Amino acid sequence: MNATARPVRPSSGRDLGAAAGLAGNWLLDPNNITISDNGPQQNISAGPNFTSTNDSSVITTATIASALNAGNSVTVSTASAGLNTQAGDIVMNGATLSVNPPVAVSLVLNADRNITFSNSTIASTGASLGLDMNAARSGAGAVSWSSSSFSAANGGQVRLSGQSVSLNDADIFTGGAPLALQFTTTGPSPQGVQLSNSIVSTGGGDVRFGNAQQVCSTALGCTTDAQAPWVQRSGDSSAAGLGLVNVTLDAGSGRVLGGGAGAAGVGVLLSGNVISARDIALAGRSDGLEGIRVAGGSHVATGILSLDGLNAGAATAGLSIQNGSTLLLSNASGAAGAQMSLTGSNKGASTGLLVSGGNAGSANETTISADGATLRMQGTASGVGIGLQAQGTAAAPGGLLIDALGASTATLSGSNLSTSGSGTLL
Question: What are the residues facing 26 on neighbouring strands?
Answer without folding.
Answer: 8
